[in-house]
Design a protein that fits this description.
The structure is a homodimer. Chain A is an alpha+beta fold. The first copy, chain A, has two domains: 3-123, PurM-like, N-terminal domain (60s Ribosomal Protein L30, Chain: A, 2-Layer Sandwich); 138-290, PurM-like C-terminal domain (Phosphoribosyl-aminoimidazole Synthetase, Chain A, domain 2, Alpha-Beta Complex), CATH 3.90.650.10. Helices cover 39% and strands 24% of the residues of chain A. Chain A has helices at residues 3-13, 36-39, 46-63, 82-98, 147-161, 164-174, 180-186, 200-211, 226-231, 235-244, 260-266; strands at 22-24, 27-35, 67-77, 102-110, 115-123, 138-142, 192-195, 214-217, 251-255, 271-278, 284-286, 289-290. Chain A is globular and about 55 Å long. In chain A, 61% of the residues are buried. The model of chain A has no long low-confidence stretch (mean pLDDT 93). Chains A and B meet through α1, β2, β3, α4 and β4 of A and α1, β2, β3, α4 and β4 of B. Chains A, B: Substrate binds at residues 39, 247, 296. Chains A, B: GO terms for molecular function: ATP binding; magnesium ion binding; thiamine-phosphate kinase activity. Chains A, B: Mg(2+) 1 binds at residues 31-32, 107. Chains A, B: Mg(2+) 4 binds at residues 20, 30, 60.
């Protein structure tokens, strides 16, 4: 059974499953486990790892349209190193501060592989689900897509060329601002929302499944990060990176057209309209062609 | 740097560190990572693992005197097995139900070693800390101590003798009721509280450090689980198991003498008075002899 099948199995078991975070009693809660082999390429600093791991959970809070309250992390390594641990905590704390949450520590453990489990908590009385998108709504994306794809490629190049400045740039690309403020801007208006951590294409398929709708996306409206163009071989490959790689932690949301200006005025990041919600019979298309359900599956 | 040194380092960094859970904004939050090699002996069922892992975090919520609201778990295995995953979720859910919390799922991950990271959340406006014990207060313990020590020994015997019924008994001993209701009973009165997960002796040293006090404990008042006597060689070894092994998830609390009856009347489990808080100059003693700071360090 692969991870997606296991997730599907759990959705039948747990009422709270199926959104980016579970909503319970005015809170949203989300947890993620990341580990060295699959999530932190060689050259990732512990500062970046702390930022990214905690940021990933804060992104799930943002995707529910909630305020971010607090985050914790369990940090496991083969052997504790003072500077690494402090750098991790600093990254975790700074990403929390950026979105108004408090980093309140966690657990330490010895483990053969560097492994981090993070949990973030937010507050909202009216969480935004993945279900609820209606034909005619606009499809919106925050920020730009492809930063993590570009970062991963730069980590590889930095490794091959043993280039410290490339490695630093890759680390920069691996840190991101969780879209808590944009999520709050979307919250009163969005009909459906999630984050793009599995890639835009897969996110659209997941929203379509939950909302029973289709999407008509225009490729020239997809906001591609500049860094992608430095590593991609042409515009077509850049679009491929931006739509399928994922791990970008931007928000994908659907809103009625008349709410767009209100959302944009409350958001601290650019919001691109990349297409429209259509009837489920019309499928999920990019420039009129079917957009496959391809993307990053965590842990693969 | 070992785990205790790393924890001490973090206490300087994080204002919220040093109690069983972090208190933030009317909530308490706690996270734990457990893994196969050190936390789940051969023969531990996934049902027991789910119960125990989530129960450990709920115990930390209880130790703050908070109501338990919700728990999540990140579940990582080399390969997903449907029955194992469902058994884990059932254990996690049942321990939550037992204390009135909601199990709201979590994350799945592939990992070479079975690893679980759990987070529990509770609510209280007035968390009970480890600091605050005053000379003259009574030292109380919930339930009985030594169940996990006995369970571990039975897992070993079950392995040697390939005995399924011994294994089942060991699993029973490895599941426990998190003391949320007792923690709520202590909350209005306790001057200091924590859980006994590192063993009674170490817990007393931690409380003494945080409260700047000493303890005079009477060995014949320490509540030893019956199961310990089945595996210990005599009363002296039984006491050793009960005071130093830990992993029992009972509460250790200090209360003014006149509050004892009120606490007992609200608790659903027996509360033993094992001694008294004394001046820090008088140290931590068991039957008048110094009680060493020995116990289980997680991850060792």
């Amino acid at each position: 059974m692969d991870e997606r099948a296991a997730l599907a199995l759990l959705e039948g078991e747990l009422a709270a499953a199926g959104d980016d975070a579970a909503a319970v009693d005015g809170l949203v809660v989300t947890t993620d486990m990341l580990h060295e082999r699959t999530d932190f390429p060689d050259g990732t600093t512990r500062y970046t790892a702390g930022w990214r791991a905690v940021g990933a959970s804060l992104s799930d809070v943002a995707a529910m349209g909630a305020d971010a309250t607090a985050a914790v992390a369990a940090y496991a390594v083969p052997e504790f190193d003072r500077d690494e641990l402090l750098a991790f905590v600093r990254g975790a704390r700074e990403v929390c501060e950026l979105v108004g949450a408090e980093y309140v520590g966690g657990d330490l453990d010895e483990h053969e592989e560097f492994t981090v489990a993070t949990t973030a908590i937010g507050r909202t009385d009216d969480p935004v689900r993945r279900s609820g998108a209606e034909p005619g709504d606009l499809v919106c994306v925050t920020g730009t897509l492809g930063r993590s794809a570009a970062g991963l490629e730069l980590f590889r190049r930095a490794d091959r060329e043993d280039d410290a400045s490339l490695r630093e740039r890759a680390n920069d690309l691996f840190r991101f601002e969780p879209r808590v403020r944009a999520g709050r801007a979307f919250a009163p208006h969005a009909t459906a929302m999630m984050d793009s951590s599995d890639g835009l294409a897969r996110s659209l398929h997941q929203l379509a499944g939950a909302s029973n709708c289709g999407f008509a996306i225009e490729s020239d409206a997809v906001p591609i990060a500049d860094a992608v163009r430095d590593v991609a071989d042409g515009e077509r490959e850049a679009l491929e990176y931006a739509t399928t790689f994922g791990e970008d932690f931007e928000l994908v949301a659907t809103v009625p057209e008349d709410a767009l200006e209100a959302v944009r005025s409350e958001s601290n990041v650019a919001i691109s309209v990349i297409g429209a919600v259509v009837d489920s019979d019309d499928g999920i298309t990019l420039d009129g062609e079917p957009l496959a359900d391809r993307g990053y599956t965590h842990g693969e």
